[in-house]
Design brief:
Aminoglycoside 3'-phosphotransferase, Chain: A, domain 2; alpha+beta; Phosphorylase Kinase, domain 1; 5-stranded antiparallel sheet
């Protein structure tokens, strides 16, 4: 296979094409007749297979030369697998134990063989089913803090940061999807946009709000220009796999250098969409589960804030905020830390609001809402989500605490905008 030209894998050809990959056979054995291959790729971009045998199991992931959700009318370069591989290796080093192990990578085939996470399930599915995950907020908050801090000029030496920025700057086509679908398309009548019937009045309100659109472009500029750290780039509830007690982060192919608050904002948005949609997924225990989701948001920020602060005091060895300017002169750097954390918080809220809009108005919606078949019941819930997103974009500077944020969510959850 290594010498072959690129060819998409299938259930039928995978054993023959991968039987000589030692890193794979080390995990599942050399007897291909005993391999069980199942395609499980239900995402928007890639082929994903579970390959099992009596000896073990692995995930085989291969990029396609187009956007799977749309088809070959939207070409997409295969190099995204290369950047995903490099993102995963860095995340594994900076936040140990939080991402799947990589066993094999083939750049020509845009192919990764990695750890099969079991009995993990996609977090979005757990949220729809009303399942709680112990330590979710702590695990993901720490992941965000460790990858953010340790991938930045706060920690790495200048050469490392510049080399990484140069490396991931080559990931042009994938972040371009974010640039269009997240920051631009929701705010005009883009070709691939779609929204639930009954939301027209809300869509008109959002697209006619010039002040809010100017704010979205402010945050777009930050995403484009503020290269604080290596961001996962697409951290949502479909990019986290969980048991009842453990969480792992997957799928960083949208990796890019961007603002500290970007990943948090994307994550919070997906939690809010789970929160608003719960009334149509819960037969009972609605209030308890909605409150748990809001607690996860609050505790994720607390976990991030604590871990980021601990790393500030113990691993601040990069060129920014050097100890020679503060501690070495007997001065505290706490005010600088608080100022930076406040900036991250405010920016995360703006990114959150924009992602809440994208997932209802642009391409690639969330199952949280899409699984509500009754459109007359779905639309009012999406309207609450859209209007809270608008408030977060406009008022990110004024929302000072997680209590303020969660109270705002509860307020919007009680309102009828249609």
């Amino acid at each position: 296979m290594i010498d072959d030209k690129y060819e998409p894998l299938t259930i039928q050809n995978l054993p023959k094409r991968l039987m000589a990959v030692r890193e794979l056979t080390d995990q599942i054995g050399q007897n291909v007749d005993a391999w069980e291959v199942k395609e499980v790729g239900d995402g928007n971009l890639n082929l994903v297979f579970i390959v099992k045998s009596p000896s073990g199991a692995v995930i085989v992931k291969q990029a396609l030369p187009y956007v799977r959700l749309v088809g070959d009318s939207w070409p997409l370069p295969l190099y995204r697998a290369y950047f995903e591989y490099h993102a995963l290796t860095r995340q594994a080093a900076r936040a140990e134990g939080t991402v799947p192990k990589i066993y094999y990578f083939n750049s020509d085939q845009a192919l990764l063989v990695m750890e099969y996470l079991t009995p993990h399930k996609i977090l979005r599915e757990k949220l729809i089913l009303g399942e709680k995950v112990e330590n979710l907020a702590t695990d993901v908050g720490q992941f965000c803090a460790r990858t953010a801090f340790r991938g930045s000029d706060l920690s790495l030496d200048t050469a490392q940061v510049k080399n990484d920025r140069a490396l991931f700057a080559g990931n042009v086509a994938i972040p371009a999807i974010t640039e269009a679908l997240v920051f631009t398309d929701p705010y005009f009548d883009a070709n691939m946009n779609n929204h639930t019937a009954g939301l027209d009045v809300i869509v008109e309100t959002i697209r006619n709000d010039v002040e809010m659109k100017a704010r979205t472009q402010h945050f777009f500029r930050l995403y484009s220009a503020q290269q604080d750290t290596m961001c996962h780039g697409d951290l949502h509830s479909g990019s986290i796999m969980c048991t009842s007690t453990e969480s792992k982060v997957i799928d960083p192919e949208f990796v890019t250098y961007g603002p500290f608050g970007f990943d948090l904002g994307m994550l919070f948005a997906n939690y809010f969409m789970a929160f608003f949609s719960q009334i149509e997924h819960r037969g009972d225990n609605l209030e308890d589960y909605q409150n748990w989701i809001l607690e996860v948001i609050s505790e994720t920020w607390s976990s991030f804030e604590k871990e980021f602060s601990d790393l500030w005091h113990t691993e601040r060895t990069g060129m920014l905020y050097p100890k020679t300017m503060f501690e070495d002169q007997g001065h505290s750097s706490d005010k600088a830390l608080i100022s930076l954390l406040n900036d991250i918080w405010r920016n995360s809220l703006g990114f959150c609001g924009i992602e809440m809009h994208r997932r209802c108005l642009s391409l690639a919606h969330n199952a949280d809402f899409e699984r509500i078949d009754d459109l007359e019941r779905r639309a009012p819930l999406e309207a609450r989500n859209l209007m809270l997103g608008r408030d977060l974009i406009l008022k990110s500077e004024k929302i000072r605490s997680t209590n303020d944020l969660l109270n705002l969510a509860r307020k919007f959850n009680a309102e009828d905008f249609l």
